[in-house]
Amino acid sequence: MERFDLLIHGASEVLTCTGEGTAEAKLAPITKGAIGVRDGRIAWLGTEPPARGEFEVDARGGFVGPGFVDCHTHVVFAGDRSGEFEQRCQGKTYLEIAAAGGGIARTVTATRAASEQELIELAVPRLERLLRHGVTTAEVKSGYGLDVESELRMLRVIARLGERTPISLVGTVLALHAVPPEFKADRAGWVRKVIDELLPVVAREKLARFNDVFVEQSAFTHEEARSCLEAGRALGLSPRLHVDQLTANGGAQLAASLGAVTADHLEQISSEGIAALAKAGTVAVLAPTSTLFAKARPFAPGRALADAGVKVALCTNCNPGSSHSENVFLSMGLACVENGLTPAEAYLGFTRHGADAISDPSLGRLQVGGPADLVLFNADSYRALPYHFAMNDVAHVVKAGRLIF
Ligand code: NIG
């Protein structure tokens, strides 16, 4: 048989994440597995490699799994909000800071003032940090431009970043993230502008896969979200929502009624909201690092969501305000300790369920014919990841068959 371009062997196990049933069964491990790669894709999976590799990597008893999918990030931004962090440490809440003119608005001012090139230079190291944590695909949102031109600039930056870093990026337009200062007295005017002027260009230039809205006291209402997301859907942009984060707002039910791909945050979700997500098949995206960092207690009820049959994905939610961190393993650890997930569920949150949250079932799994996006760990089991709390046990990252870290 022709040689593989890359052969990975010597693994304790290869987690394919292609099984069915319980979370542990979904991991579908191949004990002492090996992986053969050709042309950037997985050509073979098993225990007895039928050929050698042009290049071979010995996993030295560590486990190997799919590249992580970070399904909710805001890594394109300028400016610094360490002062707000300090204020929160002194007792101010995230909403109080936003109401006083800080929060998202502060990042909007800095982001509007930055050039496209500056935004790229600022985002590259954040993406490199994600990569070192095993992330091979990340969703990235706009939402710090909040005028048509600046939102488009953010989305073009996301597209250009995809060419600058090995991580695959998926764009999301989040024009309803906060009410722009120019529209404080005419919020309906901004929603109309987004629908009439921004979304058609985003769709025409294929700048985003998803259209997202922040439903919150400090942001947008159900009605505003519905009109924006329905208009986006008619243009081919799939709906997602930030809901039930800081205040309970029935947002999960809204997400379910819209058939949204994901409902994100969910700290304040009700039991009706959980049932609605389960019925609609909407993926719940939990962002425990932001619950911690923004001091937005309680943590989302991950256990109740998983028990109700909702797919639970995890993310870093890397952003300057509520989660200034690229630490995948902090998110996984918190998901176990505070959201009530098991280590297997937390691992699925950044693999298979993360991929489902960006509607890409070719990712987050290892399957013959699928992309060879892989992570090799300095640990023999996925259980070590949340247990070695907030520490990084990534040994190597392979993207499309290339060893990139
Ligand atoms: O996902 N919730 C809204 N958006 C971000 C926070 C953005 C910010 O504070 O800059 C989030 O947590």
Give the topology, please:
Blueprint: E1 4-9, E2 13-15, H1 23-27, E3 29-31, E4 34-38, E5 41-46, E6 53-58, E7 64-66, E8 68-70, H2 82-89, H3 94-99, H4 104-113, H5 116-132, E9 135-141, H6 148-164, E10 168-176, H7 187-204, E11 210-214, H8 222-234, E12 238-243, H9 251-257, E13 262-265, H10 271-280, E14 283-286, H11 288-293, H12 302-307, E15 312-314, H13 328-337, H14 343-350, H15 352-357, E16 374-377, H16 384-387, E17 394-399, E18 402-403
Parallel strand pairs: 1-6, 8-9, 9-10, 10-11, 11-12, 12-13, 13-14, 14-15
Antiparallel strand pairs: 1-4, 2-3, 4-5, 7-16, 16-17, 17-18
The gist of it:
The protein is an alpha/beta fold. The protein folds into two domains: 102 residues, Urease, subunit C, domain 1 (Roll); 289 residues, Metal-dependent hydrolases (TIM Barrel, Alpha-Beta Barrel), CATH 3.20.20. The protein has 16 helices and 18 strands.
Protein architecture, described:
With 405 residues, this protein is of the alpha/beta class. It has two domains: 4-66 and 365-403, Urease, subunit C, domain 1 (Roll); 68-356, Alpha-Beta Barrel (TIM Barrel), CATH 3.20.20. It is 37% helix and 21% strand. It has 16 helices and 18 strands. The strands form four sheets. An eight-stranded parallel beta sheet has the order 8-9-10-11-12-13-14-15. A four-stranded mixed beta sheet has the order 5-4-1-6, with no helix packed on it. A hairpin with a 2-residue loop joins strand 17 (394-399) and strand 18. Helix 5 packs across helix 6 (148-164). The mean pLDDT is 97. The chain binds N-(iminomethyl)-L-glutamic acid (NIG). The site of N-(iminomethyl)-L-glutamic acid has 13 residues, from helix 4. N-(iminomethyl)-L-glutamic acid binds next to helix 4.
